[in-house]
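B., you asked whether I could sanity-check this one before it goes into the benchmark set. Here's the sequence:
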Amino acid sequence: MTEAEIRAAYLEELASIAPDIDTDTVSDDDHIQDDLELDSMDVLNLVTALHKRTGVDIPEKDYPQIATVALAVAYLTDAMK
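And here's what the prediction gave me:
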């Protein structure tokens, strides 16, 4: 997957978990909990969805690495190499 495809996948999964979020307005640096107000269950659902979509295992210690679009794209791109 390219970085653009990973970004699109992240935003699609985010929208499916939190449909009230307008992904067109989510910046690369918006924090999923602090700025977008996802709770811990939403974060777990996002992790699960990203794993299904990309095949990348995301251990709990790495959750901060997917806390923003920019971080997630970098993390997933590296993990998929």
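One thing to flag: Helices lie at 3-17, 40-54, 69-79. Otherwise nothing jumped out at me.
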